[in-house]
Design goal:
The chain is α+β, with helices and mostly antiparallel strands. It has helices at 8-17, 91-119, 126-164, 176-181, 186-190, 195-210, 212-217, 249-269, and strands spanning 25-31, 37-43, 80-81, 219-221, 226-231, 243-248, 274-275. The protein has one domain (8-48, 84-275). Helices cover 44% and strands 11% of the residues. A hairpin with a 5-residue loop joins β1 (25-31) and β2. The termini are far apart.
Length: 297
């Protein structure tokens, strides 16, 4: 196919045959020569009967944040403080802004599941609601990738400050791509259990941003919301072949939460992190147990 036109459906089918998608079933909107949209279903792996899909399957996952009240950026609870006078700004405020963004991501996650529910029982609704769900999912991936980049940068800044006793003048790695190119660096060692997930997140984000064939395909999850992107690197059929990146949105959220917890724990235990927990004395008893480390209050 190198050098010639690539029908999107063909690229999807080939990727499926190579077992590159996790979701059991997808709804695919394919364009015919007449220009009319038609719907078809393609399968991958173990086929699941529709009646086995219980309503509980659609419980909405959440990104863990430190929100304790409402949606205000000020209504977050951190049990540690980070340096506020680094050459790259106030890390404490940066971390709080990340918490606020994650709450906005949770709103998009709820929207994606709501739109999925609106279309799942009626094929006629796939186009208007399914595409809205796909756009919401695309936004989720963008924001999670940005957050991961920032957390990598924060850990890098702190790591250099601890080792060299001075702040760096350049942050590298400062994003997933740089980290994957140097997994032996200190940040890579901290996040070694999450490198496979980070590559998937990076690939999906890059495909959403750059891959022209992905924009045309129009694919959404059938059994639940999914991240489904058709990647064609450099948009060049002479240099690469289409590859389908597919994972359920729920798994993306679960894996991001695991990544977030690793970052949170490392930052909280960092020698440059100051505890905000009150010092207890014999005459002072806490009125309640401290909040869970990452739990939503």
């Amino acid at each position: 196919m190198a050098g010639g036109p690539l029908p999107a459906a063909t690229g999807i089918d080939e990727a499926l045959q190579q077992g590159r998608i996790e979701n059991t079933l997808m709804a695919v909107i394919s364009r015919k020569s007449s220009g009319k949209c038609q719907f078809r279903v393609v399968a991958s792996g173990r086929r699941v009967q529709a009646e086995e899909s219980a309503l509980a399957m659609f419980s909405v996952p959440r990104i863990y944040s430190r929100r304790i009240l409402g949606n205000s950026y000020l209504a977050f609870s951190l049990d540690f403080s980070l340096p506020v006078d680094t050459p790259f700004g106030n890390l404490n405020r940066m971390y709080m802004m990340i918490q606020g963004r994650l709450e906005r991501v949770n709103q998009r996650i709820e929207e994606a599941y709501r739109l999925f529910e609106a279309q799942k029982d009626s094929p006629l609704a796939l186009k208007p609601f399914g595409m809205c769900e796909a756009h919401a999912t695309e936004e989720i991936v963008y924001w999670l990738r940005k957050t991961a980049d920032e957390l990598i940068g924060i850990i890098q800044i702190l790591s250099v400050r601890i080792k060299m006793e001075s702040y760096p003048t350049a942050v590298n790695p400062d994003c997933i791509g740089d980290l994957l190119n140097d997994t032996a660096c200190p940040v890579g060692q901290v996040l070694k259990e999450h490198l496979v997930f980070l590559k998937t997140l990076n690939d999906a984000s890059n495909a959403y941003k750059h891959s022209l064939v992905n924009t045309e395909t129009g694919i959404i999850g059938k059994d639940e919301p999914c991240v489904l992107v058709l990647e064609l690197k450099w948009n060049d059929l002479n240099r690469s072949q289409p590859r389908l990146v597919g994972v359920t949105l729920r798994k993306v959220i679960d894996q991001f939460n695991a990544f977030l917890q690793t970052c949170d724990e490392w930052i909280a235990k960092c020698p440059l992190s100051r505890s905000n927990r009150p010092i207890q004395t014999d005459s002072t008893k806490p009125s309640a147990e401290p909040p869970d480390h990452l739990g939503v209050q």
